[in-house]
């Protein structure tokens, strides 16, 4: 908010009422503690995801993407912990927030989290495309979505996303200014440092700053959300068509326990990935809409509405990054089996064989349809 408050804005009718101020002030009191617990849980959960998904018996293209996603989410969690501690929980004085070191950390935080979150979005879209191909074109799945192409897609995500965020790096920098003369908090010769629009960002009527909002809102948020919505709907239709084809091919013949288990696993895997995509849409789409409204309505909307919802958008993004572990455990038997083999205490009984299928035997998360 220092960025917007330190820049003169024309008078306008407030876009959001005093209720937004009240909500922001009330939620801000609990945001630090809530986000710290989410980050601690998410860090452990994503570490467990990486450990389980990288086991040899779990090797598959989909699990490779999920591993890359867990790494990006883990980086977000680990970086946000010191930020939330210093910003919300540390008993530091007001003057500490305007040192060069603090401003550098805030600038690094905004750039680093945006890059990691963009990588997470890239991999989520890739995951939807890979799963759609596996269900709609099973005969082409090994050719189009093999492990080599999957590794290339993950690598490109970690390379292209930092490049995509270049407007963010250039639009803001650290600037020094003198304290207000009417504020007795500061000493007379003290220098304050803030994150502000850079000269390049402010040039040509804030062209680069506006470009940054376009990239953030449209390219990083809205387009992936639309793509995920279309892919999810097509995935559901493809899943229903594949089930009808299987029933037509096996009508009149008795299915073996292994075939039944494979069909159930395919359905569970698709439902699990749909849950991951739905959670992404719930947390990301509102942010894209708010960013688009900032572009249309101007910086007044950012100051009145968008900025006051910053903490809420942060906690939604953190929850999205932390909760995947629970989805995997709830909806993937292979994930639970592998997790159990790795971390089950020796004194617990071993799961029994059901319906002719040994559930101690772990397989890849994606079963061919």
UniProtKB/TrEMBL annotation:
CDD domains linked: 7tmA_FMRFamide_R-like (cd14978)
GO cellular component, one term: plasma membrane
Assigned keywords, A-Z: Membrane, Receptor, Transmembrane, Transmembrane helix
Record-linked Pfam families: 7TM_GPCR_Srw (PF10324)
InterPro entries: 7TM_GPCR_serpentine_rcpt_Srw, GPCR_Dmsr-1, GPCR_Rhodpsn, GPCR_Rhodpsn_7TM
Domain named G-protein coupled receptors family 1 profile: residues: 45-328
Transmembrane regions listed in the UniProt entry: 34-53, 65-88, 100-130, 151-172, 213-236, 273-297, 312-331
Family: Belongs to the G-protein coupled receptor 1 family.
Protein name, UniProt field: Myosuppressin receptor
GO molecular function, one term: G protein-coupled peptide receptor activity
Cellular localization per UniProt: Membrane
Major localisation: membrane
Biological source species: Rhodnius prolixus
């Amino acid at each position: 908010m220092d960025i917007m408050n330190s820049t003169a804005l024309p008078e306008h009718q407030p876009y959001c009422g005093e209720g937004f101020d009240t909500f922001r002030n009330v939620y801000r009191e609990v945001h630090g503690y809530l986000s710290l617990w989410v980050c601690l849980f998410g860090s452990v959960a994503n570490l467990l995801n990486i450990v389980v998904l990288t086991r040899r018996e779990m090797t598959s293209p989909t699990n490779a993407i999920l591993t890359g996603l867990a790494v990006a989410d883990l980086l977000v969690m680990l970086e946000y912990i010191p930020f939330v501690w210093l910003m919300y929980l540390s008993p530091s004085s007001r003057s500490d927030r305007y040192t060069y070191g603090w401003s550098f950390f805030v600038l690094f935080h905004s750039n680093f989290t945006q890059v990691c979150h963009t990588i997470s979005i890239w991999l989520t879209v890739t995951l939807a495309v890979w799963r759609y191909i596996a269900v709609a074109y099973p005969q082409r799945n090994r050719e189009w979505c093999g492990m080599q192409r999957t590794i290339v897609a993950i690598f490109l995500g970690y390379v292209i996303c930092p490049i995509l965020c270049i407007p963010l790096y250039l639009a803001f920098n650290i600037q020094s200014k003198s304290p207000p003369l009417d504020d007795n908090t500061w000493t007379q010769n003290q220098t304050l440092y803030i994150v502000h629009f850079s000269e390049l960002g402010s040039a040509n009527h804030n062209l680069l700053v506006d470009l940054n909002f376009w990239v953030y809102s449209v390219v990083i948020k809205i387009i992936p959300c639309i793509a995920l919505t279309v892919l999810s709907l097509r995935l559901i239709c493809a899943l229903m068509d594949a089930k009808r084809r299987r029933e037509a091919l096996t009508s009149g013949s008795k299915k073996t326990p292994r075939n039944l288990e494979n069909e159930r696993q395919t359905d569970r895997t698709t439902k699990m990935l749909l849950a991951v995509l739905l959670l992404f849409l719930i947390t990301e789409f509102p942010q894209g809409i708010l960013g688009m409204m900032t572009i249309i309505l101007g910086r007044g909307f950012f100051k009145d509405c968008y900025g006051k919802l910053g903490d809420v958008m942060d906690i939604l993004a953190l929850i999205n990054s932390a909760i995947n572990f629970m989805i995997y455990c709830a909806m993937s038997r292979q994930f639970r089996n592998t997790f159990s083999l790795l971390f089950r205490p020796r004194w617990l009984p071993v799961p029994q064989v059901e319906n002719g299928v040994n559930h101690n035997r772990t397989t890849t998360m994606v079963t061919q349809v």
